[in-house]
């Protein structure tokens, strides 16, 4: 049932059809090549429209790690303790990073160097994602081919090459874990299905190695190690156990667990955390089942009935015992964080937390803008978050808009017509239902569930949707073209219907035609006692015209099929148009270089790089720069300066400290920053040019995260009647906060005294004020990044009363004593 | 209650006999593989028992030891499935190929274990 293609190929075929197969294979090869080119080139819009730069936030970190790797080698990479971030804590990079992407790009760079192709590390990093999306398309072809044959495979590969959801994370320059991980995910699934279809231990070995690559690449590997056991369990429960299933699963668990434990960031988690327990449980179950089947094979059916009760009951007892032990272990050790994780399997909101911690430590900070307080519905969203998320970690995770549940338009935006084709694909997978197609269905269902939990996981859904739609489209084309051919052959030969229905004689029918009929026969032979009893009955009724009954329901009237074909092509056309639009317009912006079109032409905002370049040229190497955590990776990578917090949000307290400083009045903020040895503070301000994801819009999250650790920061103090505003109605706490002051300092000078903020669309509340503890040192061309220097302590003490002097010296003197080098005095 | 246990006992005895007679007809090379599997499982159990008594301190060593045994057993079971003549699913697979796959998989497994042993 599962290897229809092989059956087909090994069958003695007439010479014309062998030629056709050979021709078809060559054609498929070139189509695949073109698909690869398409997948690569559709992602180049960002390079063409902007330039060859690394995008956004996390990619900068990955780029920096890759630079370190290529410069210092693999051993230094594993041992790398980074002291330029999370000052004064530092971060062990080698043990906390998923190394797959970095090692991949590093290897590519090294190979290119050894071939005397002098590409820079940055270029390699920029083009890693497009290259791997081509690989991902090919992997999707292979997987779908295992499920439904070559035609469906090619369609799925085309769809995947340009699915907007995947494009959004893999445009040139988007150098993030997902770039390689999606390829690894699909390829692992392909090898699993391949092993399942062939029962070859060789593929099982390859499968575990592919799984290893996936574990290296992305925390989303837990999806694989839960999905595959689930599928195995499904097969067992539905009575589809076979020894191929055992070969596909059991070696994968043992080898996969060992290989996963080799990755430092996973380590013993591979056997210690409950995300992996499902696989062990199913591992036990499959052995029990295998034993049962083995004994069944040895005994006579009569004897087996006796044995079955014994063996099954013993097996159940063992399983129950194991489950009980696991539950007891998980429940009895809440300190190890297991209970939270095991709960995360049940509760979607917990699940979101579990995923975001699993996906990697670097929680990406992009697309904050969607959470801008000005967005309608923001308040209710926040209320929901406040009620359900109790843990102290959660504001950080909730603050990232990628971790929110998606809205319906985002499904349409990211999947487009695939969303409508998927149900058809599911139906096509049920006829006939093989192990492979049931796996794809399960994959789809699970990924739909997960994508409903978190926008970011739409990425996992995209390949499943592509595979399903590929199957649906290819089946539809099959039916339409067959009925047209049927009509044409009828018309031209003007024979009876009987002449047309022997397929080999009909030499214009495509190979997929043959294949499909074979499959149908397979199905009818293999599963006579299941749901399709009805169909069988029909067959029995008209055994003489068996092939005819098979074809009859598939042949449509010719006008209808022409029309439907036209509509299908149109649908595909819409999809292509939408995808190209998404690739060119929606997802190509690198977010460090911004452009805007206005009536007087194109404007380029290159303020971020301007600011980072200023930092790297005008500050001391060891100076510390404080900013909100979103800009941490970029500052370390582009300005090469030490930062207090960055996008790897591993220490909530540290982030809360920075959040508290930003929410405090100037003096308190100065004290906090000074205690952290900070010399410069960087804020992002979009009020002048209307850049919405600036720090003022993220400010409430700083308050929230700060208030979560330091209770004297209270969110209601910053809200007027529950509304976040910065105009004259704003609360005094808001207007006195450091973030407000640093953002709007001297802002009135830009538009002649009005102080109109273009993001919030209002005049600012407090226009004229002076800074006492900070001084402005640099503001970029469009005011998007503003850098302030902490004024040295000495000046401040001179002008103050004795009381405050003694107080501040109490808090700051021991700290300032630890400052090794003070360039200012 | 007592009656049912008696019948279960009888059934179990009959089952045991028929199992034994059925197993005696197994080819010798499969019996050797079975012995190998049993040995591997037994070794794993010894290690687990040792861990329970002494403690799991070099956890990676314990893990690699146990998983080495379990992995060996699993791979041997796979080999047994593939070379079993009665198994219709693997009619086309020559035993040489099955053994080559087995060796490859074992090689990978033990390379990983050597790496993990610490």
TrEMBL record, chain A:
Pathway: Protein modification; protein glycosylation. Residues 26-468 form the Oligosaccharyl transferase STT3 N-terminal domain. Residues 502-546, 795-825 are annotated as: Disordered. Keywords: Endoplasmic reticulum, Glycoprotein, Glycosyltransferase, Magnesium, Manganese, Membrane, Metal-binding, Transferase, Transmembrane, Transmembrane helix. Residues 515-546 have a biased composition (Basic and acidic residues). Residues 795-806 have a biased composition (Basic residues). It is a multi-pass membrane protein. Its EC number is 2.4.99.18. GO terms for cellular component: endoplasmic reticulum membrane. It catalyses: a di-trans,poly-cis-dolichyl diphosphooligosaccharide + L-asparaginyl-[protein] = N(4)-(oligosaccharide-(1->4)-N-acetyl-beta-D-glucosaminyl-(1->4)-N-acetyl-beta-D-glucosaminyl)-L-asparaginyl-[protein] + a di-trans,poly-cis-dolichyl diphosphate + H(+). The chain crosses the membrane at residues 21-42, 92-112, 124-143, 149-167, 179-204, 210-234, 246-271, 277-295, 307-331, 411-430, 437-455. Residues 622-681 form the STT3/PglB/AglB core domain. It is found in: Endoplasmic reticulum membrane. One of its GO terms (molecular function) is dolichyl-diphosphooligosaccharide-protein glycotransferase activity. It is an enzyme of class 2 (transferase). Its cofactor is Mn(2+); Mg(2+). Component of the oligosaccharyltransferase (OST) complex. PANTHER family: DOLICHYL-DIPHOSPHOOLIGOSACCHARIDE--PROTEIN GLYCOSYLTRANSFERASE SUBUNIT (PTHR13872), DOLICHYL-DIPHOSPHOOLIGOSACCHARIDE--PROTEIN GLYCOSYLTRANSFERASE SUBUNIT STT3A (PTHR13872:SF48). Belongs to the STT3 family. This is dolichyl-diphosphooligosaccharide--protein glycotransferase.
Automatic annotation (TrEMBL), chain B:
Pathway: Protein modification; protein glycosylation. The keyword Zinc does not apply. Keywords: Apoptosis, Endoplasmic reticulum, Membrane, Transmembrane, Transmembrane helix. One of its GO terms (cellular component) is oligosaccharyltransferase complex. It is a multi-pass membrane protein. The chain crosses the membrane at residues 35-53, 59-79, 99-117. One of its GO terms (biological process) is protein N-linked glycosylation. Pfam families: DAD (PF02109). InterPro entries: DAD/Ost2. Component of the oligosaccharyltransferase (OST) complex. Subunit of the oligosaccharyl transferase (OST) complex that catalyzes the initial transfer of a defined glycan (Glc(3)Man(9)GlcNAc(2) in eukaryotes) from the lipid carrier dolichol-pyrophosphate to an asparagine residue within an Asn-X-Ser/Thr consensus motif in nascent polypeptide chains, the first step in protein N-glycosylation. N-glycosylation occurs cotranslationally and the complex associates with the Sec61 complex at the channel-forming translocon complex that mediates protein translocation across the endoplasmic reticulum (ER). All subunits are required for a maximal enzyme activity. This is Dolichyl-diphosphooligosaccharide--protein glycosyltransferase subunit DAD1. It comes from Ambrosia artemisiifolia.
